[in-house]
Each structure stands twice: as structure tokens, then as C-alpha cells.
Amino acid sequence: MKYQKLSNDKQSELRKAALLIRFRTSTPSAKSFKYVSYKIIAAMLNLTVNEVQHICRKVLLPEKKITAEQLVRKLGQVHLDFLLSPVTLE
User: Fold this and answer.
1) What is the pTM of this model?
2) Angle at Cα 53 formed by Cα 15 and Cα 56, nearest 5°?
């Protein structure tokens, strides 16, 4: 089964299942104990070992925080409305 070709709902269900089998929680931390190997999870969920590794390792990556500079550059809804208004686009 190709993980990338599945619908978003199915992907999220498989992601949650893989995490529950591997860590016995859907929100693991870097210190979480690993209960099952990638190979066993791949056989249970009919995925490749690489796909299971990708799912499990991606969850453990730290989230990127928005810096002050990036926050300043982000357009607000007022600016988007102005730029996309019919008067501006003419």
C-alpha cells in the first residue's frame, strides 16, 4: 500500500496507529520508550519500513517556532483583503 497515495483521513489513521504501536501514545517525546520495531509495525499496517520510520521520526522532530522577523513579514487579514479587492486588482 502506498502511503502517499492514500487520503488524508487514512494517512492520519495510519499515522496514529503506527505511533500507538511504537510508543503506546499518540504524542511521544524524545525520551519515550520504544515498544515495537519498525519491521513489525510495517508488517502489521502493510506499509514499508521506510514509511513507518518516516512517520515515527517526523513526530519526534522539534517544531519550528516563528521568529519575530517572520511574524512581522506575515500579512494580516486586512492587508490580504486590500490586495485581493476588485478595486486593487483593476
Assistant:
1) 0.62
2) 45
